[in-house]
Every structure is written in structure tokens, then in C-alpha cells.
Amino acid sequence: MGGWSFTAISEPWWPFVFILLAGWLPTDIWRYLGVLSAGRIDEHSPFAALARTIATSLVAAVIAQLVLFPTGSLAAIAPLVRVGAIAAGFAAYLLLGRRVLVAILIAEAILIGGAVLT
After folding, report:
1. Which residue among 4, 13, 41, 42 is buried most deeply as judged by most CB within 10 Å?
2. To 10 degrees, what angle do helices 100-117 and 79-95 make?
3. Which among 67, 70, 102, 65 has a CA at the least distance from the CA of 85?
4. Considering only CA atoms, which of 112, 113, 108, 107 is closest in space to residue 92?
5. What is the rounded radius of gyration, in angstroms, for the C-alpha atoms of the chain?
6. Can you tell me the distance from the alpha carbon of 60 to that of 58, in angstroms, rounded to the nearest whole number?
7. How far is residue 40's CA from residue 63's CA, in Å, rounded to a whole number?
8. Which residues span the membrane (predicted)?
9. pLDDT tens digit string along 1-26?
10. Residue 39 backbone phi and psi in degrees, to 5
11. Taking the C-alpha atoms of 80, 85, 86 and 90 in order, what is their torsion angle to the nearest 10 degrees?
12. Helix (H) or strand (E) holding 22
């Protein structure tokens, strides 16, 4: 039995439809609305500052979740090494002229070095 019924889940095309409806479509609608309205928003307005603050906090939350509650291969690295790599990367960012790439490379080197040594 095909179509849009519960039994359609066994069809080979169903995961692609699900990804389209549940993943791509809801997020892309907001992206397109953002692009359409971005020209009319003053980048120094309180609304833009709030949007930047929320976006930055979401990225920080994802990074914190990856560092403090990792899965997969990252979970095998000691928590002290993971937190130390983040701290060293942030310190490098502040001390070396706010260069993001340099900070990422230093944090990665510490993380990889800690993974090899443990």
C-alpha cells in the first residue's frame, strides 16, 4: 500500500520526503524571510543586537554540549583535555590578535595531542 499513509514509511522514497518536509522546508522558510527582510533592518538597532546575541548564545550552547557531553570518538578524550583545549583556544584568540583560525588550530592541536597521549 503506497501513498501518504503510515505504511508508506517502508517505501524507499519516504526518508527523502521526511527530510524535505521536516528538515529543509521549515528552516529554509526562515532563511528566505531573513534574506528578504535583512535590507530593511538597521544593523545597529536593538533588534539586530538581540538577533546576534541569540545566534552567538546558540553556537556557544552547541559547543558547550559537544565539549561537556560528547558522543562518539570525542567521548574517549578526558574531560580535562576537552575543557583545556577550549580554554587554550580562547586564550590564544584573546592574546594573539583575535585570530579565529589560529585559536581553532591551537585548540585542535591540544585536543589531538590529548587524544594521542591518553
Report:
1. 41
2. 160
3. 67
4. 107
5. 21
6. 5
7. 31
8. 12-33, 45-68, 74-95, 100-117
9. 455 554 567 777 777 887 788 788 88
10. -70, -20
11. 130
12. none
